[in-house]
Amino acid sequence: MPAHPPSALPISLRGISVEVAGTTLIRELSLDVGGGEVLGLLGPNGSGKSTALRCVYRAMRPTAGAVLLDGESLSEQSIRDTARRIAALTQDSRAELDFTVEEVVALGRYPHQNGSARLTGRERELCREALRRMDITHLATRSVLTLSGGERQRVLMARALVQEPAVLVLDEPTNHLDVRHQIELLGFLRRCGLTVLVALHDLNLAAATCDRIAVLRSGALVACGTPAEVLTTGLVRSVFGVDATVVTHPRTGVLQLLYDMPTADRPIETDSPTTPEGIAP
Ligand SMILES: Nc1ncnc2c1ncn2[C@@H]1O[C@H](COP(=O)(O)OP(=O)(O)OP(=O)(O)O)[C@@H](O)[C@H]1O
C-alpha cells in the first residue's frame, strides 16, 4: 500500500513565519524532510505544530517564507495538484456526514478523478487494501456517524492512504487510538516508504518511529536531529518542564524516557522553560 507507490518526495519549509492579528505563531521555521524520511514534530501545547503543518497541507498561507515540494513552491501549484501529492490527517479532519466508511475512504480518490465519480477496479482494490491495513474492513458499510473516536481516526487514515500521496502530513494521528492501533499505525508509517511529517505528543513513540525529530517552542525551532541527539534530559526539562531519565529499550535499543512523577516534595515547575544549551536547531 499504495499498490504502485509514487516516489516519495522531499519537502522543505524555508523560513516560514505565520502572523495572525499581530501575533507571531511561527517564526522563521526551516525544516528539510528527505524523500521517504519520517520527521516528527514535537513541542508543548500551543508551540505551533498544527500551524506549521497547516502551511504544508495548505490550510494556511505563511506570511513569509515558502514550502517546497520536491523543490517547487506549493504556492505555484494548484490546490488539486498539491492534494494529489500531499495527504493530511489533521485535527481539522472531519467525517461528520452520514456516509458509510467505504464511501468516506473512497473520497480519498477525489483529487485524482476527472469528472467521473466511478472508481476503477484498481481504485476499488486500493480502497479495500486501505480498509484492511487500518483494520476497519468489518466497518465498511457502517455510517461514520456511529463510529468511536479511534475507529473514525482509522477511517480518516485509510482515506489519506487511498490518495496515494508522496507525502503524508499527520497531526497527532494516534489521538483516540488504543495502544495496539497506535503501535500498528506508527509501525506502518516507518515502513510505508512515503515522506512523513508527523506531530506527536508521545516522546517515546516519536523516538521509536521517527528518523529525526524537530522540537518547537513558542513557534520557533529549538532542536532538530536524531531522537538520541534531541531527546536529552536537558531538552525535555527545558522545553517540557519535566524531569526524565533516558534509557535504551533492552531488546530494541530504542531510546526511551522514564518520567519523574511530581510529588509533594518535588512539584512540577511551571515557570517558563529556558532555551536548552548546546542544541543546534
Ligand atoms: N487562527 C488563529 N488565531 C489566533 N491564534 C491562533 C490561531 N491558530 C492558532 N493560534 C494560536 O497559535 C498557537 C499555536 O497553535 P497550534 O495549534 O499551532 O499549536 P500546537 O503546537 O499544535 O498545540 P497542541 O499541542 O495544543 O495541539 C496557540 O497559542 C494557538 O492558540
Automatic annotation (TrEMBL):
<dbReference type="InterPro" id="IPR003439">
    <property type="entry name" value="ABC_transporter-like_ATP-bd"/>
</dbReference>
<dbReference type="InterPro" id="IPR027417">
    <property type="entry name" value="P-loop_NTPase"/>
</dbReference>
<dbReference type="GO" id="GO:0016887">
    <property type="term" value="F:ATP hydrolysis activity"/>
</dbReference>
<dbReference type="GO" id="GO:0005524">
    <property type="term" value="F:ATP binding"/>
</dbReference>
<dbReference type="InterPro" id="IPR017871">
    <property type="entry name" value="ABC_transporter-like_CS"/>
</dbReference>
<dbReference type="Pfam" id="PF00005">
    <property type="entry name" value="ABC_tran"/>
</dbReference>
<protein>
    <submittedName>
        <fullName>Iron complex transport system ATP-binding protein</fullName>
    </submittedName>
</protein>
<dbReference type="InterPro" id="IPR003593">
    <property type="entry name" value="AAA+_ATPase"/>
</dbReference>
<keyword id="KW-0547">Nucleotide-binding</keyword>
<feature type="domain" description="ABC transporter">
    <location>
        <begin position="11"/>
        <end position="243"/>
    </location>
</feature>
<keyword id="KW-0067">ATP-binding</keyword>
<keyword id="KW-0813">Transport</keyword>
